[in-house]
Amino acid sequence: TFSGDEARHCSQVLRKSVGDHIIVFDGAGTEATAEITAISSKRVDLKILERRQTPAPAVSISLILLSIATLHLAPQFSFWLWSIGTVLHLMLTLYVLSSWMHHDRYEIQHLNPAWFIPVVGNILVTIAGVHHAPAEISWFFFSAGLFFWPVLTAILFYRLIFHASLPGRLLPTLFIFIAPPAVGFISYLNLVGGVDAFAMVLY
To answer: Which residue, 16, 47, 50, is CA-closest to 32?
Structure first.
């Protein structure tokens, strides 16, 4: 069951009715297909038909952040954190891209800024990566994150401008827009060792 902005969006904007199937998320990595059993502008009742657990990026991102934090305090420990986190995040990125390209369930309304985390999060790998592995590896992850940043930004702005606004509980996720250029600037600085014109664009 859900209510408030989500119920109004479902009933009045998406024009869903009893018997329709929708995809719902719990924000913790679980995705479910549900059937609407009752619907109004104030409340939507659902019957869960299928649950799917999707890999959450929190683990890999946390390991990479910890590797950055321990880079100078415990370099060897930082290396192992970075290695495990990087491999996990690469696997997650490939899984997410595959699910985006081979799906029959996503609609434009499902898109929100949290979708940036799995793919654009690759930019983080570079910060400690330049100290732990050949520069080519860091350039690979930096380029992957940088490629998907404008792609997802364009799709998300299309969703915000031409479709219904984000539900109230998802509005704080708009702050994720700050992360790609901020982290990208630090990563790029580590890669090239100085501030140039592109670094100033990111800054």
So the answer is: 50
Phi, psi (5° rounding) for residue 20? -70, 150
Three-class SS of residue 19? Answer: coil
Q: Which pLDDT tens digit goes with each residue over 162-189?
A: 877 766 766 777 787 888 889 999 999 9
| 30 confidence band (pLDDT: 50, 70, 90) | low
Cα–Cα distance for residue pair 200/198, rounded to 1 Å: 5
H or E element at residue 177: none
CB 63 within 8 A of CB 88: yes
Closest CA to 96 of 133, 45, 144: 144
The DSSP code sequence of 117-147 is: HHHHGGGGHHHHHHHHS-HHHHHHHHHHHHH
Using DSSP's 3-state secondary structure scheme, residue 194 falls into coil
